[in-house]
Amino acid sequence: MTEDVKPTANRTLFAMKHENKGVISMHWLLDYWNLKKEIVDFENKLIQLKEEPVEPSVIQWLEDFIQAKKSDKLELEKLVGTFGNLDNQILKMKYIDGVFLKDIGEKLGYSARHIYTAHAKLMKNLKEETAGEYHEFMDR
After folding, report:
1. How far is CA 59 from CA 29, 32, 42, 70, in A?
2. CA–CA dist 77, 133 (Å, integer)
3. Which end of the chain, C or N, has fewer beta carbons within 10 A?
4. Which phi and psi (to 5°) does residue 52 adopt?
5. 3-state class of 116 per DSSP?
6. What is the pLDDT of residues 86-129, one digit of tens each?
């Protein structure tokens, strides 16, 4: 790592701003899970590096990189909050806000059964669309 290299984080979420306005992809959820995983992985690496004799600029670079990832995650959360369709609302409330499916139904005015069914269909479609690429996230 050199000091002139600036930390960059996952920029795929910014492409979502320019997608077809009529159809919003559910792939943002995979980007979100990846960002969360990357942040944890890099924070663990930072802890390890701080216990070793490492150049301070490397530590600073990694801290900046982690901060960039966290900023991307927050921006993605804000962006997803602007999506109005029910499918994205269900996914956001469950995976970002941590709301149980039955509570999502109550908050949005739908039966729990409707939300459970919609969620199952969403996850099935997402799994099929990604051809199992993101199987590590799908069991959440």
Report:
1. 30, 25, 11, 17
2. 22
3. C
4. -115, 160
5. helix
6. 999 999 999 999 999 999 999 999 999 999 999 999 988 888 77
